[in-house]
Design brief:
This protein is of the alpha+beta class. It contains 18 helices and 19 strands. The protein has helices spanning about 5-15, 20-30, 40-45, 60-65, 75-90, 95-105, 110-120, 130-140, 145-155, 160-170, 170-175, 195-205, 240-250, 275-280, 310-320, 335-345, 425-435, 495-500, and strands at about 190, 205-210, 215-220, 225-230, 255-260, 290-300, 305, 330, 350-355, 365-375, 375-390, 395-405, 415-420, 440-445, 445-450, 455-460, 460-465, 470-475, 480. Strand 17 (about 460-465) and strand 18 (about 470-475) form a beta hairpin. Helix 3 (about 40-45) packs across helix 10 and helix 8 (about 130-140) packs across helix 9. The longest helix is centred in the first third of the chain and has 14 residues, at about 20-30.
Length: about 500
């Protein structure tokens, strides 16, 4: 298939807000692909290369401007092969070699193809075909149950591979995909509840657990080999030697555990999130001083536990992790849950998680069976722009434009407010450079950015507003922390923000 056909599908998907029409357009294209074209095409239509980041900068790509071709000639596989070649270029002369490869490719591209390639390689291809829409399209194209595609994608951690199996081999191939130790799976996510009573009333008997202010970690062990993955499925094993030692010491040979890594002071109170994450992000071994606490178990010595009720998983977790288990209490009494929440906050933690006792582990899903409760209302929003400061903040990008995710339009965000509060000089310096790197355009004193950076915002509430398209505005918003561990598709939705009006 020609790349031009993929570009045309991308344009069709981007031009409609109707989810059903997006799915139909994608499914039609998937059916027309040759077997070896499915994986790269699914990646392109999901907004990124199959290979991930390719090491080509925005300035490099947009500095190359050979005259566009009049007729399309680039195939799907040719682009995929070119990206493979880009990834392996390294050492002296590699920059010139990259530029030559790209120049040769772009000289064969039509204007529409060139624009598509540039946006694909720089992460700017926002066409409304995120993973959820693409998963539905794969199920439609292959005529297999959506649940089978979802489960296979979450366990395989590779939607491109799942698409190939679904279209070429059908449901039986998908159902053969299971949890594999040392291969990360998408984590189960939580919804938000206003308080513990609301959560207990909805879930009944529940495990109420401390909500730690750390980084999500999935730990895999096969005999002496241990691998650690973030919530985004990035391998961070080399950064966390202390956690590796703990996992290797546990009484099992094959394990998959879900937990949090955090820093603690001598009195066991948690460190500030930014301090802990600063060590977590470094690759020089500084993360060895971080500690881990586990709250779930997915596999032990040949037994998959994804479909076991939480009470059974908790029993196994206690047996396996012992002192490394996050504190929890099993109750259906809101007063007991509230006392447990008060104790957690008193010890410096964020709040609690309330999890239905009979719930299974729904990999990759944000279901109603897990509810997070924080005493302070916080939202994970996306920075849409920032204004140049004045006075003492002259020269820094300061006042942030904040957006909530639009669930009806994948990749789109609705502005809900601004804030310049909660920013230290160190944060101002960092965010100025960060947002200049993400710059999309400027108007007056505002630098508008690509919507990629998630920030956690604390608020006192929301109020109705005609100023913003979502009809709601934040009250007393202030920056709590930047969330480099979350992507924009994990930000809170405008629907969630509007619900706070009640």
């Amino acid at each position: 298939m020609l790349l031009a056909d993929i570009v045309a599908t991308s344009e069709r998907v981007a031009s409609t807000r109707a989810r059903t029409q997006k799915i139909a357009a994608l499914a039609e294209t998937l059916r027309a692909l040759a077997p070896d074209e499915i994986a790269p095409a699914v990646a392109y239509l999901s907004g990124e290369p199959r290979q991930g980041r390719v090491g080509v900068g925005y300035r490099t790509l947009y500095s190359l401007s050979p005259p566009p071709a009049s007729e399309p000639s680039i195939s799907v596989l040719e682009l995929d092969e070119m990206i493979d070649r880009l990834q392996v270029l390294a050492g002296p002369g590699s920059q010139a070699a990259r530029q030559q490869l790209l120049t040769d490719l772009l000289s064969r591209a039509t204007a529409a193809e060139g624009d598509f390639i540039r946006r694909l390689l720089t992460g700017e291809l926002r066409q409304g075909a995120l993973a959820g829409v693409m998963t539905d399209a794969i199920a439609k194209a292959a005529d297999v149950p959506l649940a089978s595609v979802r489960r296979a994608a979450m366990l395989a951690g590779d939607l491109c591979r799942v698409a190939s199996l679904a279209v070429e081999e059908g449901r039986e191939a998908l159902d053969r995909i299971g949890l594999e130790v040392l291969r990360p799976v998408q984590p189960m996510l939580a919804s938000t509840a206003a308080d513990v009573r609301e959560a207990i009333d909805a879930l009944g008997l529940s495990s109420v657990e401390w909500k730690l202010d750390g980084a999500r970690i999935q730990a895999h062990r096969h005999r002496d080999e241990v691998r650690l993955f973030t919530r985004n499925l990035n391998d961070v094993t080399d950064r966390l030697g202390g956690v590796v030692d703990i996992v290797r010491s546990l009484p099992a040979e094959r394990l998959v555990l879900d937990g949090e890594v955090l820093g603690v002071h001598d009195d066991d109170r948690p460190e500030v999130f930014q301090d802990a994450m600063s060590r977590f992000s470094r690759k020089d071994g500084s993360g060895s001083g971080l500690v881990v606490r586990f709250f779930d178990v997915l596999h032990v010595d040949g037994d998959d536990l994804l479909d076991a009720p939480l009470t059974e998983r908790a029993r196994v977790l206690d047996d396996v992790t012992g002192p490394w288990r996050i504190p929890a209490v099993l109750t259906d009494d809101p007063e007991v849950a509230q006392a447990f929440l008060d104790d957690a906050v008193g010890q410096g933690h964020e709040g609690v998680m309330v999890k239905g006792a009979s719930s299974t582990y729904e990999a990759g899903r944000r279901g109603a069976a897990w509810r997070k409760i924080k005493p302070v209302i916080t939202l994970d929003l996306v920075v849409l722009g920032a204004e140049w400061g004045y006075g003492r903040r002259q020269g820094w990008l300061s006042n942030l434009h904040l957006g909530a995710r639009d669930p009806e339009r994948p990749g789109e965000f609705v502005m809900v407010g601004k804030t310049f509060k909660g920013l230290t000089d160190k944060t101002l310096t960092w965010q100025t450079q960060r947002f200049l790197d993400l710059e999309a355009r400027r108007e007056s004193n505002v630098v508008f950015v690509r919507p990629e950076q998630v920030v956690e915002i604390a608020i006192d509430g929301v109020q109705r507003s005609t100023r913003y398209a979502g009809g709601v505005a934040l009250r007393f918003a202030r920056v709590k922390r930047y969330r480099d561990d979350k992507g924009p598709d994990e930000a809170d939705t405008i629907t969630s923000v509007q619900a706070l009006l009640r």
